[in-house]
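Entry 14. Structure prediction run on the chain below.
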Amino acid sequence: MLTAGLEAWQWLITLLTDYFTHIVCAILSSGPMPKHIAFVMDGNRRYARRRQQRALDGHTAGFFSLHRLLDVCLTLDIRCVSVYAFSIENFKRSQDEVEGLMTLAKEKLIEMSQKGGVLDRHQIRVNVVGRRELLPLDVQEVARKVEQMTMHHKKAILNICMPYTSRDEMATAVETTLRDCRDEFLYPEDITESDIDKSLQSAQRHSPSLDILVRTSGTFRLSDYFLWQ
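Output returned:
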């Protein structure tokens, strides 16, 4: 009896939350909206510790939050979302946590890309941004397949940054710009800010300029994410 009452209460809370979210989205969408929002998906491990759970349980909850974020952003007609899913620096964490995160990323990419899934329903194009060669081969293959499956989707863009740091993106953009400069017989002094901007991985994937950066845990630091942008 107690379990049934608890389930009914949870169902009611979910229903009310969805209802008020819909109302708030309707109000917000009546005004000017950003085109591109980036999220630092932070606080998963602290979330797990507070509930005396494994770190991986916190990361799993973070992926569910990503689904809700996508739904809200699409309701608000925000057509580009970028998420900081895994930093290059995160490879320094314990082997168990890194392997668990890689498995989770692979599973969620497959889940999201299923026919009738969130990417299919909303026609979202996925870009995996970062040093993907550092990912396990099976995760690289899934990332490649998801990008290929969604490359013709036109309604929205989801940039999944993993493994990524902004310093690496900027260094790569400078290298690309210098190489292009050499190939086109231009002088280094002719390089402009716009040239480097166009060489950023996120810009090359048809993403509009960044409007807002949100860190979900409430802490105030950038953690080497989208520093140029």
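The chain has nine helices and five strands.
Filed with the rest of this week's runs.
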